[in-house]
Amino acid sequence: MSTTAAATLARAASRPVEWTPWVVAAADAAALEAAFLAGLTLRRMLGNWFTAGIGPGQYGAVAVAILLLPLIHYQLGLYPGYLLGPVERLRRRTLATLAVFGGLVAWDNIVERGVLSRGVLLATLVFALILPPLVETLVRAALVRARRWGMRVLMIGAGETGRAVARTLALHPQLGLTPVAFLDNRPAAWNASIEGVPVAGPLALAAAFERRAEAAIVSLPDLGPGDRAAVIQELNFPRVIVIPDLAGIASLWITARDLGGCLGLEIKKNLLIRRNIVLKRIMDQAIALPLFLAGLPLMAAAALWIKIVSCGPALYCQLREGFGGRRIRVWKLRTMHLESDRLLERWLDQHPEDRQEWSHYFKLRRDPRILPVIGKLLRRTSLDELPQLWSVLRGEMSLVGPRPFPDYHLDRFPAEFRALRTRVLPGLTGLWQVSARSDGGVDVQQALDTYYIRNWSPWLDLYILARTVSAVMLARGAY
């Protein structure tokens, strides 16, 4: 055994005490009880609107019954939730919460004959859909920072695929997979380090890691099917994850199918299924209408401010590419001076060091075109996009989707990607906005938009909308 292998085995000599699931479960239970208290408080605050009073008998059962949710979450694998992406965690949490509250309503109507307070139930349900996922996110982030989040995994194969997987796991620690070592049969790779993970030696050392790691990730695209199957058969880990050679294929909604003893992978193109298109349209209308009505006073105040600091219209309109390649009008609150093109060219001529930033991001941190105060405020908070809610209501845009970029921006994309974008409605926000926003170039935008289009689900839309609120409040990546 090499010195590197011995040192790696020594570092992974024993598994840490696994108290992480208990922390997540305790935080979840506390968040649920906080949701109940918030719902009860809201119901009492609105007591003048209701004729019936409420006592402990009408809400005490709710406080106890919602503690069924942590038990269900445990069965659904949410404690601690390793290997589950944020979209899947949101889906499981939401469905479990709706099921428990639906069961409470059914029990109350059938058995108790209407004892429980409907107001408390409804208010608690709303807070239970919001608070526990938020607390879970905060707790997970704290555990990641404390290096108490994740299971140990052994990486089988140190080739390009294995390197890419290790890089992804390092960039997304919330997935909960912590590589402890690589194993590879090529001697040239031994005694090296990949993404901070040592290459301990050949695959024959896998047995030495069986009591030191909870999972193995197999990425051996160069092996034939028979050899790969033999390697997998010899691995005695509770979890074995095989990375198939399916680069560029959708990854979020792949389902394993048994085809008479043969393994098949079903890859759904969800956004091409008509019922999903209808569901997405219903979600857009249900969310966009109240947002548009609530945003009207804010848009009016911003428009007045714009008129005060700059002559010209308060709204800015630009024709951009929409569904099916048709041209649509995209409206914004104007954040720039009217002569913005001339100001930009003059600035780039005077500051050539900014030209590369403009050509890569199509944005400038020092932008001479922006209106003082109001322009920067609207762009930092993305409130200049509020008029596009009208386009969502008209069916020309969706709340979530690839952003409708200007033509000079689209010209930087390959033709096949531009064609892919036209198969879905452009969005008011998107995966790029919540993941990279202004800090991601055209290559990042292409990768994230492609992932969204190929992996769409209503849960992904809800996740992006929730992340949008966070990104806007923190003004992350916007300028």
How do the strands line up in the largest sheet?
3-4-2-1-5-6
SSE pattern, N- to C-terminal = HHHHHHEHEEEEHEEEHEEHHHHEHHEHHH
Helix content: 40-55%
* Largest sheet: number of strands, sense, barrel closure: 6 strands, mixed
Count of separate structural domains:
3
Pick out the low-confidence regions: none
Rg is 26 Å
Query: What is the rounded distance between the termini?
Result: 54 Å
The fraction of residues assigned to DSSP E strands is 5-15%
Number of helices: 18
Mean pLDDT: 83
Shape: globular
Total number of strands: 12
Q: Tell me the structural class.
A: alpha/beta
Describe it.
By secondary structure, this protein is α/β, with parallel strands linked by helices. It has three domains: 20-145, no CATH class; 148-245, Rossmann fold (3-Layer(aba) Sandwich); 274-335 and 370-474, no CATH class. The protein has 18 helices and twelve strands. It has helices spanning 3-11, 20-45, 56-65, 68-75, 86-112, 118-145, 160-171, 225-234, 274-309, 340-350, 355-361, 374-381, 388-394, 407-410, 415-421, 431-435, 442-454, 458-474; strands spanning 151-156, 177-183, 193-194, 197-201, 215-218, 239-242, 254-259, 262-267, 315-321, 327-333, 398-400, 427-429. The strands form four sheets. Strands 3-4-2-1-5-6 form a six-stranded mixed β-sheet, sandwiched between helices. Helix 2 packs antiparallel against helix 6, helix 4 crosses helix 5 (86-112) and helix 5 (86-112) packs antiparallel against helix 6. The longest helix is centred in the middle third of the chain and has 36 residues, at 274-309. The relative contact order is 0.08. The mean pLDDT is 83.
